[in-house]
Design a protein that fits this description.
By secondary structure, the protein is mainly alpha-helical. Helices cover 52% and strands 7% of the residues. The radius of gyration is 33 Å and the shape is elongated.
Length: 123
């Protein structure tokens, strides 16, 4: 192949021709049918017996990375108005978070199912 003119355009033309020829050779499955069959006959591609997986054991272990107990109440004192001591309890907030945790887990499960489904090719 002869190319005259711009050297960069000629180099791009040669590169594109090489890419097209490589692509045509790579997608010629009928011409490579015997090679593909030989490759798939390797022991690594033989089917294996199904093994039973117990999902109950996978989730019975501790799955939390933070402690599930509520923090202790914080106390503070004011020197004004007689020096009273006040206590701030986290118990209502902990109860709310505990009640909401199942909803958060369910929403995350739906989100990840949609995420995986779309990655596989779903709409």
């Amino acid at each position: 192949m002869n190319c005259v003119g711009d050297a960069i355009a000629c180099a791009q033309l040669v590169y594109l021709k090489q890419q097209k020829c490589s692509g045509d050779a790579a997608t010629d499955f009928l011409g490579q049918k015997d090679d593909i069959a030989d490759f798939l006959d390797q022991p690594a591609f033989e089917s294996e017996e199904d093994e039973e997986i117990n999902l109950g054991e996978m989730f019975s272990e501790g799955t939390r990375f933070l402690p599930s107990s509520c923090p202790q109440a914080k106390s503070f004192s004011l020197t004004t108005n007689g020096g009273r001591t006040f206590s701030l309890s986290f118990e209502p907030l902990c109860q709310f978070a505990s009640d909401l945790s199942y909803l958060i887990v369910a929403a995350a499960a739906v989100f990840y199912a949609l995420y995986v489904g779309r990655a596989v090719g779903g709409e």
